[in-house]
Amino acid sequence: MTTGEALQTGTERLRESGSVSPELDAEILLAFALKMERTALFRNPERVLPAKAQAQFAGLLNRRVRREPIAYLVGHKEFYDHDFFVDRNVLIPRPESEMIVETFLEMFQRSAELTIADIGTGSGCLAVTLALFYPNAKIIATDISEQALNVARKNAERFNVQNRITFLIGNLLEPLTEHNKLDAVIANLPYVPDEERRANPDLAYEPVLALSGIKEPEQLYAEFFEQWKARPDHPVALLEIHPAMRDFLEHETECLGISATFKQDLAGKDRVMIVGTL
After folding, report:
1. What span, in angstroms and rounded, lies between the C-alpha atoms of 117 and 119?
2. Contact 207, 88 (CB under 8 A)
3. Is the C or the N end of the chain the one with fewer CB within 10 Å?
């Protein structure tokens, strides 16, 4: 089988399975099996595939047909122009989460000496990205999953920012009790309703803990607000949210006497909630 034939066969199989991007998926998987850049596939379409690469490509196709995400198959995902290691212990970074970074950059000067907490860090994509943008910042990344923290540590080492990020295990803001002064908090908490998660086969491989959590999303956010209000410093907090949660979030913060504003994404949907003020 040649490279061209493999791409054609893989694309057809993925299209039949319902992939929305069969050509791209086939190219990514074949390039991964051949350990080369995707663009290099087209330089020599008559190249005969080595038996090992052909077998690996076939195995990857089988997994992709079963809707396993590309990011888990190849072990990485781009976020804010940086390539992060991911596995099935963490949520795959989404473009929507880049809005937290964009909002943070609008609010804080890059030369600022900040102490930032990343709550529910997962892969560490937010903590690491901010560490790269803010060389004078110290970051504390928390997660309830030790497996997720291990992935985040790998990514901190990957980008050589491990000396500026402290990783703590625990629920929401609880691990931060000894840190009396924070300048900012960022968080992408689990917010996908169970029924939405179960109805979407593309989410079947991602950790339930990161998508929906062990509590209802409303309960989790309410707990976050309570913990935030109990802190003496009340650092400004940037949270990624599900657009359908806005009414609940507004009501909850109003009841607690907490100021909150919302930012919309390019589709006009509420995506980032800003709690507190600078």
Report:
1. 6
2. yes
3. C
Residue 114: name the closest of 164, 159, 69, 161 by CA. 164
Do residues 274 and 237 lie in contact, with contact meaning Cβ atoms separated by under 8 Å?
A: yes
Over the range 158-172, which residues count as b (16 or more CB within 10 Å of their CB) and which as e? bbebbebbbbbeebb
- pTM value? 0.93
> In angstroms, rounded to a whole number, what is the distance separating the alpha carbons of residues 31 and 20?
19
Q: Which of 110, 275, 88, 78 is nearest to 186 (CA)?
A: 275
Identify whether the C-beta of residue 176 lies closer than 8 Å to the C-beta of residue 152: no
Note whether 86 and 93 are within 8 A (CB). yes
* pLDDT tens-digit map of 156-168: 999 999 999 999 9
Q: How far apart are CA 146 and CA 175, in angstroms?
A: 13
Q: Is the pLDDT of residue 180 over 80?
A: no
| Cβ-contact 274, 258 below 8 angstroms | no
Residue pLDDT, tens place only, 23-64: 999 999 999 999 999 999 998 889 899 999 999 999 999 999
- Give the separation between CA 159 and CA 84, rounded to whole angstroms: 9
Residue with tokens 């992709």: 64
CA distance 176 to 173: 6
The phi-psi region of residue 267 (left if phi > 0; otherwise alpha if psi is between -120 and 50; otherwise beta) is alpha
